[in-house]
Amino acid sequence: MNLTQEDWIAQLEADDNAVILDVRTEDECDEGIIPNAINIDIHKGQGFISEIEELDKSKNYYVYCRSGARSAKACEIMNELGFENAYNLLGGMLDWDGEVVAP
Question: Which stretches make up the Rhodanese domain (predicted)?
Fold first, then answer.
């Protein structure tokens, strides 16, 4: 499900079962991440799928990348793997005006 930054933040802040997932490369993450995000690089292919499958499917995942394209794909993959709640941040880090911290 695609959410605008406003909706993504509002839903995230009200969610006690939330996990923030950054699917960018390590180099991109080195430029800064959304606080408390975990990083699993979608470009790892099968490695990405293996790491995603180890996550708790009962949690709600707030997924982002640089522009929103890779995170949309990550949400699709997660849905196929049985994750019911994966939310894509439209516009990704390019449009993000919230807090950014060093990884």
Answer: 14-102
